[in-house]
Amino acid sequence: NQYGTPALNDKLYLHFKGFHAIENLEEYTGLKALFLEGNAIDSLDGLQGLTNLKCLFIQQNCIPEIEEGVLDTLTELSNFNLSNNNIRKLQNLQNLTCLHTLQLANNFLPNIESISHLRECPSISVLDLSNNKIEGTYEELIELLKAMPNLSVVYLKGNPIVNNIKSYRKNLIASMPKLTYLDDRPVFPNERRCAEAWYAAGGGKEGLEAERMEREKIAEEKKAEDDRQYQFMKKIVDRKPLVYKDGRYVRRDDIDVDGEDISDDEGSDYEEEEEPEELVAARKRLAELQAANRGVEKPVELIQAQ
Question: Is residue 54 within a helix (H) or strand (E), and if so which, with residue range?
Fold first, then answer.
């Protein structure tokens, strides 16, 4: 449902309508999301008045290029989807200073030079270049990606360059410390550790040996952590409960079957156990909260619940 006054609308759905051009949007000055996918649009001209636009979905159209000046006023644009168009060269995005996500899958970008304009888009964090025609060397690709300081998610699958780079995934992960997602799966910390060990050893057989050793180290660390957690829980389970007896708390082992306190009997091997640090910290925090709330009237509902 749309408002009758165009300026009051923050979303506009015009997808799969058969439009050939972007027209008559001058009054929609409050738009923040515009859906134009699945039409026959061949130009981005007509968006200049949408200065508040944050999301533009214009995939599955016939756009061959990004014309000069048509996006300069869209300084708030954060999400730009140009997938499934006819883009052959990336250009004229330098004024999109808030651009976070750029999707260019299934276009006709032929090489690294055709996407070199990305150097002028440092704000991009998510970049989808999958299923294009991009060719080039690893050195050219990594130089370009490193020039994008906020880049953390990259999709490159379906390009010839991926097949031409040996150990493509390991090389990219090791070369890009901020990378958290590559193609079809996340970059988990253990995978990064193995890739960096492989890369530091120079790849090849030495790299594989370094990766194997790192995997063994990870397994040992996991086992040690599991043992630590097990011992911690076992200590909690094995601790005997405290019982209040004659004005003090004693462990249940210090009370005989008749209920008499035997903790001071000769031969008693009772020793006060040290409380875990986590429990001590929790008690301290609870005391601080109680002190902070002292004198504050509690709601009736809370008093009834207690």
Answer: none
pLDDT of residue 284: 80
What is the C-alpha separation between 234 and 134, in angstroms, rounded?
57
The pLDDT tens digits for 114-123 are 999 999 999 9
Closest CA to 245 of 266, 226, 270, 225: 270
Q: Two tokens at 27?
A: 């009054």
Token look-up 């001590």 returns 280
pLDDT tens figures, 136-161: 999 999 999 999 999 999 999 999 99
Q: Is this structure's pTM higher than 0.90?
A: no
Beta pairing partners, 102: 80, 127
**162 C-beta neighbours (distance < 10 Å), count:** 16
DSSP labels, 69-91 = TTTTT-TT--EEE--SS---S--
Give the side-chain half-sphere CA count within 13 A for 305. 5
For residue 101, what are the β-bridge partners? 79, 126
- H-run or E-run covering 47: none
- Spatial distance between the Cα atoms of 7 and 166, rounded to a whole number of angstroms: 53
**Three-class SS of residue 240?**
coil
Distance CA 271, CA 286 (A): 27
How buried is 87 (Cβ within 10 angstroms: 0-12 exposed, 13-18 middle, 19+ buried)? buried
168, amino acid identity = Y
Query: Residue 249's pLDDT is what?
Result: 64
